[in-house]
Amino acid sequence: MNRRDFMLRAFKGMVITGLLPQFSSCLRSNDDKKYFFPLDQSDMNYVQLNFYGGPVRWGFDNFLRPTESHEFIPTRMVGGRFKDGMGDVELKWVKKHGYLVPDFWDLKMKSGVEHSTLLQNMISIRGVDINVSGHPHGIIKTVRPDSTQPSIQGVISDHSKSPLPSIIFGSNPATRSYESIKRGGIKIPLNERNLLEQILSPFVLAEEKSLFGSNNDKKKIITKVLDNLKLVEGAEDKYLKELYGSLDLFIDNLAPFLDEYESYLSKYEKLILQNIRNFDGLSLDKLSLRTLDMGNLSKFKSEDEWGRYKIDYQTYLRGDNLEEMLSSADLGFVPHQFACTEFLLKRGLTNSLMMSTPNEMGSFLYNCSNQNNVHQKSFSEGKIVSTKDKFVSIQMDSHNTGTILQTIASFMFYRGLVPCLDRLKNELKAIQIGDNKSLFDKTLIHLCSEFERIPSEFESGTEHNHRSHTSSFLSGSIKKFQIAGNIKTGNNVYGTIGTAGHVEKFGRNLDPRDIYQSICSIMKIKSPVPRAEVLLDWKGDEITSTLNELKNVEGVSC
What we know:
There is one protein chain. By secondary structure, the chain is an alpha/beta fold. It has helices at 3-14, 19-28, 135-143, 152-159, 173-176, 195-200, 215-229, 237-245, 247-252, 254-276, 294-297, 303-306, 313-316, 322-326, 334-346, 402-429, 512-523, and strands at residues 45-50, 81-82, 89-90, 93-96, 99-102, 122-128, 167-169, 186-188, 352-356, 363-369, 372-374, 384-386, 391-395, 443-448, 452-455, 462-465, 469-474, 482-484, 487-488, 536-539, 542-545, 552-553. The protein has an eight-stranded mixed sheet with strand order 8-7-9-1-14-17-6-18, sandwiched between helices. A two-stranded antiparallel ribbon has the order 2-3. A hairpin with a 2-residue loop joins strand 4 and strand 5. Helix 10 packs across helix 15 (334-346) and helix 15 runs parallel beside helix 16.
C-alpha cells in the first residue's frame, strides 16, 4: 500500500498504542537506550531471504549427498567448482558437523572466519514439491501456499505486538502476495540507497518528497501529518498534543537513525566486495580459468567445439576476459536490505521482514561492465564488435548462461551472502534480551527460492525443476546442523539434482504447506493452512527437525 493509505489505516488502531506514541516516549528518554523500543521477549522474529529467480543451489545449500551411503549420480552441468581447464564442473564434498556438504563450506571469508560456522545453526529441508511450473506461481507458493489464507508474513504480522507490521523489500510476485487480515505490510521498493528513510516515514503523505530534508521542511511535513490525524477516527487529543510537543525532539533525533543505518550499510557493502572480488575456491587449479581468455577461446574452430553449454559467449563474454567483465560486479540491494534488517530488529520496530530481489526476475550479479562483445559469426577469428549494453546483470534464471557463467555467478553471490548472514548473526547474538537469550535465539532466518534447477536438454543452461525446493533455516535456537527430506537419485541423463522423493511418514512428497506450518509452529502461531505437517518444532528451548527421513531414493529426476 502507499504511504497515505498506510497512514489512514494504521493510525486508526495504532495512535494510542502504536508507533508514534512509542517514538515520543523513546525520544523523551534520557538514557543511553533512548533509540530502542522494548524488545518483546515472547515474539520470535522471522526474516525470509527470498531468491526469486530460481538460482542454482547445488554448490550451496541443496545438499545432494549428505553421507557416503547416499547414492549420488553426477551429471555434466551440476557442480560448484571447475575440475579442468575446459570449464567442466563437479561437486566436491567435505564433512562438516556430521554431514557431507559442498566444499564451498570449507572456504574462509576474508575476515578468516570459515563459512561453515553458519552450518552449526542451520536446518535444511530438501525435496519439497512445489508442483506448479513457472516463476510467479512457484514463488507465491513459498509465501502463500493456500490462496484462501494470509501469506506467512501476513499471519505473523497479525499476531505481532511490534510497532510496525511486516516489512517487504522489492517488487515481484513474492512481495505482491503479502496478505493479512488485520495489518497491511509496508512494501519498500528497491530503488533508493536509503531504505530506512522510506520505512521510518510511512505516515508521510504520498505527495511529499521526503521526511529527511531541512529541519524546516521536516516540521512542515510532520505538522501536516499531525493535522491530518485529527480527522482519523480514534486519534485521541492527549496523544496528538504529546506528538505536537515532541515534534522538535523527533526531528532532531532522525539524523542518528540514518547515520547508524549508513554505518551498517557501509560495513555490509565492504563485506560483500571483499569476498566477491576474486574467484579463489572455484578451482584447485588456478590455470583452469585461462580458457576464459579470448586468446584461448579463439583457438576453437567452431562454436560446437567450445559448446554453448559452457557459456553463452554472444551475450555474456564481453571484452577479452570474463574475469575482467565480472570484476566490477556487485550484489545490488543485498547490503541495503541487510543493513535495514539489522537496524529494525535491534530497534524492535518489527518482527517480520522479507528480503527479496528488486523486480520481476532476480539477478546474482549487477553492474558487470564492458563495452565490447564477441561477434558470434566471427568467434573463431576472435573478432570484437561493439555493443550498446555497457552494464549487464547475470540472472539467477540461468536458461542460457551455460555452466561457466552459472558456476562463477552463483559462487560469487553466495560468497557475498554468507558474510552478511554471519555479520547479522553476530550482531543479533550480541544483544541479550533476558533469560540468557540473545536476539539471534529469538530470530528465525529462512533462505528459499521457488524451485531448484535441472540441466537443459541441449546443455545450454538449466531449466525449472518445480519438483525440487529447498528451505534452509538459521537461528540461535538451532543448536546443531540437520538435513531432512528425501530426494530421487535420478539417472545418467539428469542425475541427482534434488527432485522430491516420497516421504514414508506422510505417505506423500513434502509440500510448501508443510514449510508454512513449520514456520507457524516455530513462531508459536496457530496455522490457518489445512492438511499440513510440522517439519520443525520446539523441543524445550531448541528448534529441531521432526522429520527423521533423509534418503536418496530410486527414481528419475525429471
